[in-house]
Amino acid sequence: MTSSQLELLRPSTFIYKHSSGLQITSGLFSNKRANAFYKESPYGNTFSWKNMALMKKRSQKLRLFIDEHKHKITSPILEAGPCLHPLATPSDFPGSRIFYWEKDPYIIMALSAQFGKTINIVNIDFSSASVKQVQKLHKRRFEKLGLGQVSFGAIIASQVLNYIDYKKFLSLARALLNPGGLLFLNNGKNTGIYKLFSSKRPKTTLEIPTYLEAIGFEVVDWQIEQAYKKGKKGADGSFITLVARKI
Ligand SMILES: C[S@@+](CC[C@H](N)C(=O)[O-])C[C@H]1O[C@@H](n2cnc3c(N)ncnc32)[C@H](O)[C@@H]1O
Questions:
Q1: How far apart, in whole angstroms, are the C-alpha atoms of residue 165 and residue 179?
Q2: pLDDT the model gives residue 50
Q3: pLDDT digits over 144-187, tens only?
Q4: Residue 202 within a domain
Q5: Helices then strands (H, E): number in the chain?
Q6: What integer pLDDT is reported at residue 150 of this predicted model?
Q7: What is the pLDDT of residue 8?
Q8: Residues of 33-54 as b/e, b for ≥16 C-beta within 10 angstroms?
């Protein structure tokens, strides 16, 4: 990455005004910078700053759940796939150790530029990772931070399930949570960047809490809403937000 590309990734702010009158603020990019960023990004125009703003808006539904259960969240906290707008930041959780999992080098670069050493970014493909690989990847960082074994007090995964083998990921999340640890999730059925979808994504919205209960979570709080217009390619508009506790 060249220094001019790096410059593009330095934090700034833009406000996206939706036709509904809604304003969405991004902590990271001006419109110009965002467009330059995405020209270089593997996602190209599909993942434009406009889509990014809408994605961020949907992620805020999970923030409400996180805020409600904040008093039960213990460090360290893992957020899988935060993109450019994490839900767990050092200012949200002062004193907590925060880990981000991402595989996109552009996003990793941007998160580093924004948060520096206040967070821990792990370059990982969490669709295929095993518990053993995760432990190996985190062991040294955990030791350096004076944390014990590699496990988390809370895991956040907002709008990532469509892109991965979601059952494998939920089992991995369970294995990595402390007893009583919390998993915060949301997902829109067949909603997102269709060409990046995994064939192992959830096929229905209801199967997500059902699967969680089957593998040893208690679903503490959940909501399914009609969040979008019905779309092509099987998007029925349903969107689930939930918090589950490892039993
Ligand atoms: C649709 S975005 C969601 C971003 C944000 N959490 C939200 O709710 O708006 C999915 C994010 O997960 C990351 N991601 C998707 N699949 C991944 C994988 N297998 N391993 C690591 N990161 C992944 C992408 O790079 C992207 O940042």
A1: 24
A2: 67
A3: 999 999 999 999 999 999 999 999 999 999 999 999 999 999 99
A4: yes
A5: 7, 9
A6: 97
A7: 38
A8: bbebbbeebebeeebebeebbb
- The pLDDT, as a whole number, for residue 192 is 83
Q: Which residue has the tokens 């689930």?
A: 240
Report yes or no on 159 lying in a domain: yes
Q: In the chain, which stretches have pLDDT less than 50? A: 1-30, 44-46
Q: Find the helix or strand (DSSP H, E) in which 7 lies.
A: helix 3-8
Residue nearest to atom 16 of ligand 1 (CA): 163
**123 located within any domain:** yes
Domain assignment of residue 38, yes or no: no
Residue 50 φ/ψ region, left for φ over 0, alpha for ψ in the -120 to 50 degree band, beta for the rest: alpha
Q: Domain of 201: which CATH number?
A: 3.40.50.150
How many structural domains are present in the chain?
A: 1
- CA–CA dist 221, 7 (Å, integer): 42
Q: Residue 201: helix, strand or coil by DSSP? A: coil
Q: Cα of 201 to ligand 1 centre, how many Å?
A: 13
> What is the model's pTM?
0.85
What local confidence, expressed as pLDDT, does residue 129 receive? 94
Look at residue 33 in the predicted model and tell me its pLDDT: 53
The closest-lying atom of ligand 1 relative to the alpha carbon of residue 59 is 8
**Boundaries of domain holding 172:** 58-246
For ligand 1, atom 12, the nearest C-alpha belongs to 81
- ∠ CA 238-241-242, nearest 5°, is 135
Does 105 contact ligand 1 (Cβ within 6 A)? no
- How many angstroms separate the CA atoms of 120 and 229, rounded? 37
Ligand 1, pocket-test mutation among 163, 166, 170, most atoms within 8 A of CB = 163
